[in-house]
Every structure is written in structure tokens, then in C-alpha cells.
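Final paragraph of the annual report: two paired records, presented back to back.
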Amino acid sequence: MSPIPFDKNMGAADSHGTSSPTKVSNESLQKFLTTKARAEAGSAVAQRELAEMYGRCIPVNINPRRFLQSIDAITALSKSPANAEGMKRVARVTADECASVDNGAIIPLEAHDLWLQQAAKQGDLAAQAQVFMRPGKRPQGDELRKFMDQVVASNDPTAMFEMGQLVEGNPSGDGAGRYSSVAGDTLTGYAWSIVACQRGLDCGAGSPIMNSVCLNTGGCSSPDFESFVRDYIVTTGDAALLNSKIQEVGSLLPNSN
């Protein structure tokens, strides 16, 4: 799951529990224009963020009303009022934001792909990890070890989180050198992502990551990513192993201070 970039305050609700379209749209428009200008000026981080904006809004901008109607249909079946209300709120924020992305126009897939590739080419490690997750691109063995070396040396929480997504899809970490025990399987992937949150990535409610979790899984009531993983993903029997993996990943990274 690639993180979806939202500002933490963009999902603020009014007294009726719905976002303020005018405020969110103004903030979203400014964010989009600023990000696009920085991307066009050559910022690799902005290029990745722009790609993520496009990626998020591709399905929404095809038919925003239908997108919101589909969310209404999903939440109508929910057994959790908190999750249902949270999903509606995030969906409204998403639709408002996407209305500001290229003026709400339908977005070609190439817009996402080309900006992401450019960000990866210019050295953005999070973008490189996202590219690696595509079919036929996943690194193994020494190639994976070298990439993990770069992520560890960068001490970049965003890259660490994406490393978690990459590792999660690996059947094993064989051949990854000193990373072999933390380079494969789902639980280890979550450990990388949780460490990224502990290292400063915004993983709280209303963050890019949690809004993505909400729309993709329906889990919209957790206070943060780690709580979501522990409450909904990891079994009680695996909790100790997750703790061990988190500690092991943390020991490989530079001191956060």
C-alpha cells in the first residue's frame, strides 16, 4: 500500500460530521499547484507526491458522484458506525481534493506512471520502492540488499514505509545479506512500516497513510497505523514476533537522534 498524501487537517469535520468543501478545496488547490510547480522545477520528492495525487484521483475523477455513491453503498453494510462515518469523511475529502487536481479532469494513467518514474530516476527512494513493486520489477538477492542499504543510510521514514510495502510481498529474504531476516514476509513488512511511523512519518488519524488504510480496508477508526495493524491484522499469537521484528529493524537503522 503506497502512502496517499493528505494534509492532516484536511479531513476536519464541521458540526454535521462532513468536511467543509470550500476550505478543503482551497487547501487542496494550493497544495496541488505548489506540488506541480515544484515537480516541474525538478524536485524528486514533489514528482513522487504529484504521481501519488494523480494515482489517487484517477478512479475518482472518472465519475466523482459514482465514487461517493459507492462509498455510501459500502458504509451502509458496515457493522461499525465509527468505521462507516470515518470512511464517508475520508471519501468526501478525497473527492474534494481530486476536484482540484487538473481541475477535476479525467487523468490518464501515464500521468501517474511518468511522474513516478521521473522521481525514481532522480533518486527518490520511496518512488524507487513503488516502481520495484510492479510485476517483474521486484528486486531479489544482492539487488535487494543494495537497495536496502540505501534506504537504511537515508534514514528517510517515507522510504522505510515503502520498504515495508516492498518487503511484505517477498516470499523470503534469502540472499539479502544482513537483511535476510527482515527482507521477506508480511509481518516483517509491517515491522518496517511501523518503524517508519516511529521515526517521524505521520501515521496518525487523518494522515496520508491512515486515509489510504480507511479507503482500502474499511478500517477507519484506528488512531494510528500501528494500532490498526495490531488490532486488525496481527493475531495475538504473532504480537511477540512483530515486536521482535520491529526491534530488529530498528537496530539496523542510524540513531534517530
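The closing record of the year follows.
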Amino acid sequence: MTTVLERSGAAPINTSPTQLDAMVIGAGVAGLYQLHRMREMGLKVRAYDTASGVGGTWYWNRYPGARFDSQAEIYQYWFSESLYKTWKPSERFPAQAETEQWLNFVADKLDLKKDIQFNTRIVSAHYQEDSGRWLVTTEAGERIDTQYLLACCGMLSAPLVDRFPGQSSFRGPITHTGLWPKEGIDLKGKRVAVVGTGATGIQVIQTIAREVGSLKVFTRVPQYVVPMKNPKYSKADWEQWGNRFHELKQHVRTTFSGFNFDFENKPWVELTPAERTDIMEKYWNDGSLAMWLATFPEMFFDEAVNAVVSEFVRGKMRERLRHDPRLCQILIPGPKDYGFGTHRVPLENGYLEVYLQDNVEPIDCRKTAIERIVPEGIQTSDGTVHEVDVIILAVGFDAGSGALSRIDIRGRGGRSLKDQWSQEIRTTMGLQVHGYPNLFTTGAPLAPSAALCNMTTCLQQQVDWISECIAYARRNGKHTIEATQRWRITGCSTTTRPPPPRWW
């Protein structure tokens, strides 16, 4: 078996702890900005990352077809007009390599890399009550003593790797999409299995289908999908966006989801059925997440409204599948599954049409679940062994809590964050956890940056709040910042999801 299922790193061992004012975990979108803000404030700060370079999600997720679903003009840093105007994206939805290049461009322009230690895995962080500081340890044994611990670990940094019995027995390459090797994997003419049809799986499937010899797609949860329109951007196009920098900067901070579109249509009840259809057609043809986040807010709260929107999308998908009954049953969510928009909606480019190819076969895991991995391939519950040469695991991440739970984080009284969250996850807006003073988090559980947000908008807001909170404490001679128990309880009780539960 050839496998790429681990992340490792090493750093020199030091005998005495490195003394810092602030330590940042992660060098992705949030980590780079957090490092920049701390340096601007004059703090002695250093960032640490398991990877060998900056990028976070965009460093690791280099699988075929990887790209983001936010338009390039808003997937941006807003603290620098110069950075915005200087970097010129090549298309509306740039691919992974270009996004990684952009983050390297930002890091180089701000000279951030000199304060980042790469190839370093954090294994523990213990709060020292006598000093009010955090003692952090790396996998190599290096120790860091810091007042503020700023965990910008990312929502997609803890891949779910060991999903099926027998993975180590497979005799070909097997890899998680979040750990795709830099050198790539030769798929040409091979028998390939993709497990999972979330946003990542969809991108992989539509990209490799014409290259592989045969493709078996193991799907359990069908997805509502929206076609992506991805025009190229010229220099003139970007100059136009650059001229709107200040307008966009203000606007994305006020919209429902941090995008540059919002729910601006008349209320559902004031529209005729024909007007509702016209609105859905308009946003469907936009080729972005506007179909999800700019049509009708009522679909998140009113089951009848959601049913109409969901059926509109199902109809579009049935047409593209040529009304093939088997494909429609496997690939399109039914009325009893879940409603459109209650999961993050994948954008795609020719994904459904892939299943019309003779070399592509979907396997419905709701009927025949994956039982185990065997040397020849994948065995399902009906006893069938699907023989393949390569297995691609697009099975997702332990999102939100996973990255932090994989570090031995201990707060007051030695309490364990992992143990605490295994019982119940509560945070203060995803920014702090009661009992863990001076620990700040971005993209964490119960943060507003969950599935509904343009991540650069939400992450920058969180970094700004953290930075301003620390600045306030320092101005006022405060050494410790900690969320109260009262806020931990009341904050969660007033930020629940809308009913009914089965939608979500």
C-alpha cells in the first residue's frame, strides 16, 4: 500500500522556553492576519505551522480541481488597499495553486515569514495558573512560554483519515484529499474510486472523470448543486474591482453571509409564483452562491418556502441527468432528505454530466454501505468487491473542534478542552472558552464563520475583535482575558439553529 495519510513536522529542541507575548497557531488566512495585527501592536509574536509553507487550507488541499467558492473580488484581505489592487486574480473563482500563491504574496509583501516557524506540530498547551501564561510544547520537544495563545488552526485542518477497516491492506495508492501529495498521483487510465460527494468530492470527480480509465463514486448523502460560472479576469476587470475597494470592504461586513450579495428581494408572501420563479432563475444563472444566499431568507425558517426552492433546484438537476431514474434517485436529495441551503451548497462545473459517461458508476451507499477496504479495492455490504487501482477519500474533516481537540489543551485546574468538548461544545461566539484564559480561537465551534460565511470576511472580523480586545487589556493594565461562565451559558442558548432539526 502507498498511503499519504499523515502530517508530520519537526523543529529543533530548545532547553529553555521561548518567551513570547503572543503565539499564533496556523499560517493560513486567519493566522497570517493575526500575526500581522500582533506585530503592528508591537508584541513579540511568532506563528507556528505543521506545513512547510503558508496557506493553511490552501497548502494542504491541492487535490485535482480544488478551488474556492467565493468570488476573487471578495475572498480578500481588507486591511490594505495596496495589497488588494496589486494582486490580480486570473478568474472569478481561482484554483488552489493560485490561492496559495496569493497567500505567499501577502506573506512576502508583509515580510511575515521571518516570524513563522514551519514544519512544527503543536502537541500540548497548558495554562500556568501561577504565572497566568501558557506553556506550549511542540512535537520535537520545543517549549514556548506565551501570554496569549491565538489558535488560528482552521476549520479544515483535521482530516478524517481512518474511516474504514482494512485501509492499510489496500495495495494501491490511497489518500485523503486534504493530504494530497505535492507530486500528485498518476490517475491516467487507472481504475479509481472516490469515496464521498461533498464539495471536495464533487470537485475531484468532475476533474478526473475524463482522465481515468474508470471511476466508481461511493456516495451516501446526495447534494443539491449549483453550476459555477467562472469567467477569466483581465487586468481591466481587476482595475474595476480595485476602484470599488472601499465600497466592497464596507458592504461585505454588513451582509448576511459576508459576500457581496444579500437578500434584497421582496418578502416571499408579496411575490407571485411567477415572480418567485423569475428570481430563482436569475440567481441560478449567476453561477455563484447567490442562488443560496441572495434569493429568499424565508427558506431557512419556513419549510413550505424551502420546499418550493428545493424542488426548483431538483428540477434543474433532473434535466441535466436526462431524467435518468437511477441517477436521479442516487444523486438528487429527495423531499424527505433535507432542504436546499441547509447544507453548504457546492458549486460545480459539469459534475452531473460526468455520470452520463460510460466509464463512471455511482454506488449508492445508502443501500450498500462500504464495509471495509480490501487489498483489491472496496468491499460493500452486499459482498461485492469493487476492484480499483487508486482510492481517493473525500470524506471530510473533523471541522471546527477537530484541530483544537488534537492538541492537549488544558486550562484552569488542568481541565482538558478535548474532554470538555467530548461532553458538550460551548464557546463564546467561537472566540473564547470559559476556563481557558488568554486563549483565543478563530473558525472555532459556534463562531459565525461556520457553513454560511465567506471565510475571509468572517475570519478577519474575528481577528480584529481578538486584536482589539488584547489592545484594550494592555492599555488598561489587564493581564488576563477570560469569557465568563454566564456568557458561556446564555450565549449558546440564544444562538441556536432554526427548526425543524431534520433540515440541518
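The radius of gyration is 23 Å. This concludes the annual technical report; the extension proposal builds directly on these records.
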